[in-house]
């Protein structure tokens, strides 16, 4: 079945550091890929998405590129802020599932310290 | 409403009790999903509705789990004879369009944290 693997956390960075959170997937066909973020005490929010190979999703300074050849969708940000502290989830939707359910990774907790 | 709302936010049940969890999706959203999120894990799919029709319930872990959306808006997830392994956060999500019509963005509620003692 489809699956998403993301790097183990927690990740602790100093403010203004460069962030990479790795995400790889296995899926039959051509899924759409997502990053969701969960801030403390809040619900999951869509951060960015890409629907086909080589697409780049971007939002709030974060970006990720859909790499079909490496089945990856790594999340990057050039300069993190304390307010970016949250849990980040990589996810995919595969049309073959019939209901467009999301398949999530386990999440990566990011803590940014001043 | 402005977003997806869920109630109650927290529920404590004794093993064997029945519970009902409510989801109010964004007004006009056709698609509604339920997910279960265990501690330290990502959400896992339970079931999907398009309007009032339950089109996919392949993720429901047992026949103790039942979901409905009788009028195509509010949905209820019911768990009968709760067990300790049912302890988790239950998330509801809605999206504007049915699958295949560009409706890939799901909007999530804050979840209901269920603790079974």
Topology:
The complex is a heterodimer of chains A (114) and B (117).
Chain A: E1 3-6, E2 11-14, E3 19-21, E4 23-26, E5 32-38, E6 44-50, E7 56-59, E8 62-65, E9 75-77, E10 86-93, E11 102-104, E12 108-113
Parallel strand pairs in A: 2-12
Antiparallel strand pairs in A: 1-4, 3-9, 5-6, 5-10, 7-8, 8-9, 10-11, 10-12
Chain B: E1 5-7, E2 10-13, E3 19-24, E4 31-37, E5 44-50, E6 53-56, E7 65-68, E8 75-79, E9 88-95, E10 107-108, E11 112-116
Parallel strand pairs in B: 2-11
Antiparallel strand pairs in B: 1-3, 3-8, 4-5, 4-9, 5-6, 7-8, 9-10, 9-11
Describe the structure.
The complex is a heterodimer of chains A (114) and B (117). By secondary structure, chain A is an all-beta fold. Helix content of chain A is 0%, strand content 50%. Chain A contains no helices and twelve strands. In chain A, strands 2, 5, 6, 10, 11 and 12 form a six-stranded mixed β-sheet that branches. A four-stranded antiparallel β-sheet of chain A has the order 3-9-8-7, with no helix packed on it. In chain A, strands 1-4 form a two-stranded antiparallel ribbon. The model of chain A has no long low-confidence stretch (mean pLDDT 91). The radius of gyration of chain B is 13 Å and the shape is globular. Chain B has strands at 5-7, 10-13, 19-24, 31-37, 44-50, 53-56, 65-68, 75-79, 88-95, 107-108, 112-116. In chain B, strands 2, 4, 5, 6, 9, 10 and 11 form a seven-stranded mixed β-sheet that branches. Chain B has a four-stranded antiparallel β-sheet with strand order 1-3-8-7, with no helix packed on it. The mean pLDDT of chain B is 92. In chain B, β5 (44-50) and β6 form a beta hairpin. The chains are: A mainly beta (114), B mainly beta (117). At the A-B interface, β5, β6, β10 and β11 of A face β4, β5 and β10 of B.
């Amino acid at each position: 079945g489809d699956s998403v693997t993301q790097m183990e956390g927690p990740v602790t960075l100093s403010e203004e550091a460069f962030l990479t959170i790795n995400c790889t997937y296995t899926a039959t066909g051509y899924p759409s890929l997502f990053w969701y973020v969960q801030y403390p005490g809040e619900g999951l929010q869509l951060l960015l998405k890409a629907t086909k190979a080589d697409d780049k999703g971007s939002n709030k300074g974060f970006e990720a590129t859909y790499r079909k050849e490496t089945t990856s969708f790594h999340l990057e940000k050039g300069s993190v802020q304390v307010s970016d502290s949250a849990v980040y989830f990589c996810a995919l939707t595969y049309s073959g599932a019939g209901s467009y359910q999301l398949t999530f990774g386990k999440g990566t907790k990011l803590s940014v310290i001043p | 409403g402005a977003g997806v709302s869920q109630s109650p936010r927290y529920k404590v049940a004794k093993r064997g009790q029945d519970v009902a969890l409510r989801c109010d999706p964004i007004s006009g959203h056709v698609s509604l999903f339920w997910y279960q999120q265990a501690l330290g894990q990502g959400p896992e799919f339970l079931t999907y509705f398009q309007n009032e029709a339950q089109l996919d319930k392949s993720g429901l872990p047992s026949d103790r789990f039942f979901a409905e959306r009788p009028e195509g808006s509010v949905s209820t997830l019911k768990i009968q004879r709760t067990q300790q392994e049912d302890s988790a956060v239950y998330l509801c999500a809605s999206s504007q369009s049915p699958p295949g019509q560009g409706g890939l963005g799901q909007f999530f509620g804050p979840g209901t944290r269920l603790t079974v003692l």
